[in-house]
Amino acid sequence: MKILIVGLGSIAKKHIAAIRKIDSDAEIVALRSGKNAPEMEGVRNIYSLEGLDETFDFAIISNPTSYHAETVERLLPLKIPLFIEKPVFESTDYSELIQKTIESGVQTYVGCNLRFMDSLVMLHDYIRSHPEKIINEVNVYCGSYLPEWRPGTDFRKCYSSIPELGGGVNIDLIHDIDYTVWIFGNPVASRGLCRNVSSLGIRAFDYANYTLVYPRFTASIILNYYRRDYRRRIEVVFDDDTWTVDLKANEITDMNGETVYKGSVGAAQTYEAQMRYFINAVKRGERMENDVVHANEVLKICLNYERFEG
User: Fold this and answer.
1) What is the Cα–Cα distance from 262 to 118, expressed in whole angstroms?
2) d(Cα 177, Cα 171) in Å, to the nearest integer?
3) pLDDT (tens digit, 9 = 90+) per residue, 170-218?
4) Continuous H helices in the chain
5) SS3 at position 228
6) Could you say which of 97, 113, 129 is where a domain stops?
């Protein structure tokens, strides 16, 4: 395989590692913004697509979110599948580009690797195969500490802290909105509230609270950047039991604390599982679940919020 990568940051390195496990002979080519860009072992740098006399099996777009739209526009003429790191764009103002992408016939996938964690897969499959189960409430929580995300870097200068680059906890942690929609379906209504008043002192949102309305229950999603003891959970309140999915432990327990399911595919392994799904779909020419159309619908939920001042 020959793969083009645009954006060679920390997330791109995870995708490259996943590709190497799948195909150790894969040729990785990175489109860099300047000739002073550092070299990465096993990756060949190029600096322009103009006059490029080579073809690629697919491209990975993993540059800052605010550059995704222009990168998609540049790559569409290559007529190769596009793996776009989440979120798909920084705003929902790209309906024409989405339509252009659909009309081009180019396969697209927006990376949401937590869909491949097996405890979430188990919950997804259980909910879908037991439509008779009565759900009264769903609570989703993700709290983590942004300064520890990228060791050795100033968290205030990374894109996560800079709203102009598409930063903010509501966009960075769109995973939790995405898997809520993936598991329970599209809500009939939603609204959010976002703030940035924590001790982190950043301009991007560091707290987000969403309400997703379903016909028979309501889902609450709380996200933050400032919790030092990482916690990521989903609580599903059935009429006869309560299941808690602990993503850190990758397990599901019931209301008595008994283990319902213990997973083996943790967050670190999901990148390989996700890449295998993408590559297999590319080979078969199949439309992927989380294409730009679906991802844009999730983004609409993410960006439907009020900013609370004070």
Assistant:
1) 9
2) 9
3) 999 999 999 999 999 999 999 999 999 999 999 999 999 999 999 999 9
4) 10-22, 68-75, 95-104, 118-129, 169-172, 174-184, 267-284, 292-302
5) strand
6) 113
Task: Indicate the residue among 77, 96, 113 that finishes a domain.
Answer: 113
pLDDT above 70 for 309:
no
- Give the residue among 127, 225, 108 at the shortest CA–CA distance from 180: 127
- Give 83-142 as a DSSP string: EEESSS-SSS--HHHHHHHHHHT--EEEE-GGGG-HHHHHHHHHHHH-TT--EEEEEEEE
Residues 184 and 47 in one domain: no
Residue 64's pLDDT band, with cuts at 50, 70 and 90, is: confident
Planar angle of CA 149, 150, 151, nearest 5 degrees: 110
CATH number at residue 71: 3.40.50.720
What are residue 63's phi and psi, to 5 degrees?
-85, 175
Residues contacting residue 292 through CB under 8 Å, at least 6 positions apart: 72, 84, 88, 98, 101, 102, 108, 110
